[in-house]
Structures are given as C-alpha cells and as structure tokens.
Specification:
Blueprint lengths: L8 E2 L25 H4 L3 H4 L34 H8 L2 H6 L2 E2 L6 H10 L18 H4 L1 H11 L30 E10 L12 H16 L7 E5 L15 H9 L10 H6 L10 E5 L4 E5 L5 E8 L3 H21 L6 E2 L3 E2 L12 E7 L9 H7 L2 E4 L12 E6 L7 H25 L1
Antiparallel strand pairs: 1-2, 3-7, 3-10, 4-5, 5-6, 6-7, 8-9, 10-12, 11-12
Length: 436
C-alpha cells in the first residue's frame, strides 16, 4: 500500500481547527483552556498544552506554521538532520513553503520542531515530524534526504521489508545462566490511515483515534485481555469520565510503564502536547506485560515485556496483539498506515520502517568498562542507553541495549541482530570475569 496520491494545493493554511464540542465547553479544559493538572506546570510547558501553536520566547520557540516567514530562518547554528539538508538545499524552503496536504498540513508543521530546537553538538536529532501520512510524499524532496541521513543511506526508491513471524526468530539463548539480563521488551508504533498524526490532529479527531484504538484493544482475548486507563483528568472516555486515579497513574509511571506530559521543547514544538491530557491513556493486560500507549508521540506505542530473556515469548505476544488490533480495524473498514517504501508510517522519521526497538536491561560492568564499548555495539547494529533511558547514565554497569536500526530491515531481522549481539556481549563479559 502506498501513501495518498492527492495533488498538492499551492496555498498556505493555519493549523486545522474544529468547532468547540459541546461536552468540552469548560473554559478550564481543552480546547478552551488548561486543566488544573497542567496549570500547575511551568509556563513554558503550559504554552504547549493548549489549542494554539507552541510559541515560547523563553525557549526560543517562535516559528509559526500559520505565518511562515518568506525566507527560512537562520539554521547556521543548528545540528539536526533537517537543518543539514536545508543548508545544503536552501531552495527547498521556498519551493515547499506554499504546499498543503489534503488534510491541511503545511511545511511549517513538519519543520517547526527542528527550527525551534538548534540541537546539541554531540546529539543529532531528526528535526522533523509528519503531520499526516501524505506529508512524507508531498514534502518528499525534504523528507527523503532526511530519512536517508538518519537511516544509513536508505534510498528514495528502496523497499522496506516487513516480517512479524515469530518462527523466523533466532533460537540462540541470550543469557543461559540468567545472571545478566534483568528485563526484555519489544516496542513499536502504529498509526491508523485516514487520521492526522498527533502533531496536527484536532481535539475531536484525537478523541476519534482513541475510540477506534480502544475498541480494538478491548477485543483482545486470552493473555492479551485487559483494560484501558485514560490519563488522570482526561474527560474523553465515557467508561472512566475523569481518567484513571492519581494513585494508578503514579504506580504506572514509577514502574516505567507510562508517559507523562511533554517536558521538552522538541515535543512541545512538534505539537504533540496540544489539548493535554485529553484522549491520552494506556491499555495493559491483566499480567501487566503488554502495554499500549494511546496518543502520545504516536497514535499507538505498543510494548511487550517481561523479566528474563525470553524474546520469543515477548515477540509472539507483541505480534499477536498487533494482528488482533489490525483485524478489528479491518472489520470497521480501517487499516494501519503502511507503504512499501517506508514500512509502518509514524510521526518521527526516526521510527519509520519497523518502528521497532528490541531491548533488554543487561548488567555487564566489565565489558562496558571498555573505552570503545559503544563503538563496538555500533558495529554490531546495537545501541546502549543508560538505565533510566535516553542520555541517562548507567548504574552499576547496567545498560539498556537494543537494535540501532529501524528502517531497511524487517522486524525479525532486527530482533535477531539484538539476540545474537547481546548473547555475544554476555559471553565477552563472562570471559572477562574468568580472567580477573
């Protein structure tokens, strides 16, 4: 399946607006205002959780998709894939500036986060998001080189393979002794065709997305059977009109299983914080080893996890769930966003393809002490994060190690790279322990 073939419209538009729904006429609730939980936050966060574009002079977030300047802002001090491409091809801004997708997404919606956030000299972000599925085709002259830069030269005419068959997984045992791997998880995302993506969807559209997704999740059976819990204070879900309890929310977050409001200008400038916390939530099964985040950065973030190293069981649960949701959507005449070129369509180009991260918390204090530890992982197609996530420090030699690639290789290929790689790292750790 390909993306929309709608012809581009040469016109400028503001962010899509909808009439204020009757059930949300409260002046202290989106889209009219901010709920109490958000009013307590710093102003620079509050500004990104309402109905308007994120404009915050304190954080340098002043680019307006609704009123783009004639010339591209100065990107000379920026370090992200978007700015790199734009600096090499400055004519692209003027060429694409007047185009709008059939769902009302313009170039500004896609590049605001990369303009507002210069980046870090040592951390290179993408600097772009998609506002809808058509963004990737209408603005392909910009997205394609950004995607190529982020995904190791993935070509504009390349085809992405998809394989969710657990039978094709490696049978190598990652941690035969059970001493090194603490927990293992597989994570991916999915989007539903016909809806805009979180950076650009309207208040009511986000509620429709939640309704469709939750209907699919509540139809899951067996070990996947569970319940949906909107964020505390959300009024979008009739079965839980004020969302989950604060205690439930705190417990999920303390266990690392739930997101919170956007607290970075990257997310706020992207538009993912608008109307927070309405129509956001989490589904989990009864065993609490399968989770789906709804309407965070992506429409769906799907996570399967458990203690130990049984990747096959984790992946099978993960595959069964995505297939189950797919069937319910098809029964309603809907489908996931997918293209032969880009695989599963998600908000950030970094997650295109599989959107998959197979990872484990693994304790390897001796091998990780090597100065070239992360460089070795890179050569193996792996990456390491600290024990608390991106950019955090490792504790006691414990790292979150996962596949580095997303696009150009299938799900089972990436999981197999993870399995074989971490198994080898543990063997090296054992050898170093013997030599002490």
């Amino acid at each position: 399946m390909g993306c929309s073939d709608s012809k581009p419209k040469v016109e400028e538009t503001t962010a899509p607006k909808v009439e204020t729904p009757k059930e949300s006429s409260d002046s202290n609730y989106p889209p009219n205002g901010l709920p109490e939980s958000i009013q307590k936050l710093p102003e620079w966060i509050r500004l990104g959780c309402g109905d308007d574009e994120y404009i915050c002079e304190e954080k340098g977030a002043v680019f307006k998709p609704s009123d783009m300047p004639e010339e591209c802002p100065d990107l000379s001090a920026h370090n992200n894939f978007f700015s790199e491409v734009m600096k090499a091809n400055p004519e692209l801004y003027g060429k694409l500036k007047g185009l709008t997708t059939s769902q009302g997404v313009n170039l500004g919606h896609c590049i605001k986060t990369g303009i507002d956030n210069p980046g870090h000299p040592m951390i290179k972000t993408v600097g772009m998001v998609a506002g809808d599925e058509e963004s990737y085709t209408l603005f392909a002259e910009l997205f394609d080189p950004v995607i190529s830069g982020r995904h190791n030269g993935f070509a504009p005419d390349a085809t992405h393979p998809t394989d969710m068959n657990p039978e094709n997984l490696s049978t190598t045992k990652i941690d035969p002794t059970g001493k090194y791997v603490l927990t293992t998880r597989c994570r991916t995302g999915r989007s539903i065709r016909g809806f805009r993506l979180p950076p650009c969807c309207s208040f009511e559209e986000r509620r429709d997305i939640e309704r469709v997704i939750v209907k699919g999740l509540l139809s899951l059976e067996g070990g996947l059977k569970g319940d949906y819990f909107p964020l505390h204070g959300s009024r979008s879900y009739e079965a839980k009109p004020t969302g989950m309890s604060e205690e439930k929310e705190e417990a999920l977050r303390n266990n690392g299983n739930l997101f919170q409001e956007p607290d970075s200008t990257l997310l706020l400038s992207s538009g993912c914080g608008r109307h927070w916390p309405d129509a956001r939530g989490i589904f989990h099964n009864e065993a609490e080893n399968f989770f789906v985040w709804v309407n965070e950065e992506d429409q769906m973030r799907i996570v399967s996890m458990q203690k130990g190293d049984d990747v096959a069981a984790i992946f099978r649960r993960f595959a069964d769930a995505t297939e189950g949701i797919k069937k319910v959507l098809e029964a309603e005449g809907r489908e996931f966003m997918h293209s032969d070129h880009l695989g599963w369509i998600l908000t950030c180009p970094s997650n295109l393809g599989t959107g998959l991260r197979a990872g484990c918390m693994v304790k390897v204090p001796l091998f990780s002490a090597r100065e070239d530890f992360k460089a070795v992982l890179g050569k193996m197609g792996l990456q390491a994060r600290g024990s608390a996530g991106v950019d955090s420090q490792a504790t006691g030699g414990t790292f979150d190690i996962s596949n580095a690639d997303r696009l150009g290789k299938s799900e089972t290929q990436l999981v197999n790279i993870f399995i074989e790689g971490v198994a080898q790292i543990i063997r090296w750790e054992q050898e170093r322990f013997k030599k002490r």
